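Entry 14. Structure prediction run on the chain below.
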Amino acid sequence: MGFVAELRGSSRLGLLVAASAATVGVIYGYDQSNIAGALLFMTDEFGLTTRQQELVTTAVVIGQILGALGGGALANRVGRKPAMLAVAATFGVFSLFSALAVNVPTLLASRVLLGLTIGVSIVVAPVFVAESSPARIRGALLVLYQVATVVGIIAGYLVAWALAGTGSWRWMLGLAAVPALLVTLLIARLPDTARWYSLRGRHEEARAVLQRLDPGADADAALAEMTASPTRRGAWREMLRRPYLRATLFVVGLGFFIQITGINAIVYYSPRIFEAMGFRGDAALLGLPALVQVFGLVAVVGSLLTVDRFGRRPVLLGGIGIMVVANALLIAVFATGGGTLFGFIGLVLFTVGFTFGFGSLVWVYAGEAFPARLRSLGASAMLTADLVANAVVAAVFLTLLNGVGGVGTFVVFGVLALLAMVFVHRFAPETKGRELEDIRRYWENDGRWPAPSSRESV
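Output returned:
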């Protein structure tokens, strides 16, 4: 329980940063799952076809891609805090727009705009946390964002279940404005990150933030380490040439594998999957997906408690391994009609494997992989690749399930999970306990950790 002790010992500002990031995660998670319940009822009201259901689900992901593409540049230009404030406020507004949609075109437009704000948030939030956390618990605080995301997913299913008797899909979507208001109030009380102030030459403000975050640390030494890095603004072209091309290829590949392996097919379409297995009724179609995510929440808490103890690679590889086993079980269930119990267990294992590994480590690597001037752009590249794969899965899953059945669908996901394991084993660096400036040197040293005495800056 070292993380709990470290968190209790953190400064008030550190706790506020963690709480703010967690609330942003709740927003993201709630938006992922509330559409699963809402689709059951808006399908009848709007007469949606299978293709239109996929389009409504995918619309928010298209917006997220656009937001992720621009989120890094926005965070560099205006700051991490203003970007997150804008996200929280506009998320609440567009959630209400979605709830008030009068036809399919207005629903699609509001979902794209909602996705735009989420896309910015998932780029900026991990950067904000990584730049505001001590190295000893940085991994755990980044995983805390995934804990909050899973809590939001569970809340989305439970709210849908509670409102299922009335078919109130508009309330399911509109209630997302409540956590948006809360996070707006939380973030308004925070300063920006010391590293962003340093990049802008505002060194006194950077020093003040460092002193507030960790009163026992040497703020002047930490500031000197930051300012020793190049102070020019990062540019996309710098990420596409040495020494950071290797880092770019890694984060883009990891981001793509995280989603193409199929987790959001489970989140977005769990009611449809349970229906295909033979489950019926609101309690099964909305309650069981929430229960699946409760197991996922336990797994991500396990990741939070182990990621800074055992390291990033063991956690990530272990989670993917569980996903491979889950795919094998689901293939067997659909091939043999093996029963609803084993189907439920398969979805639980799939979700547990994802949340323990991919789901938690995406935020860690997004926040750690690049030096300060490129950090938000690197997170943007990684999460854009993640969202492109997400859009592909959201756009074709129901068609795939209806076309080739559960066996063919989970064979595809199983093969992709195996490829992801190979990729991670080959390319993922172990960054446990490393300062952010040390991780910069790893990429600058062609993917090798420099000798301990090597402290030169570029």
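The CA atoms of residues 274 and 355 lie 20 Å apart.
Filed with the rest of this week's runs.
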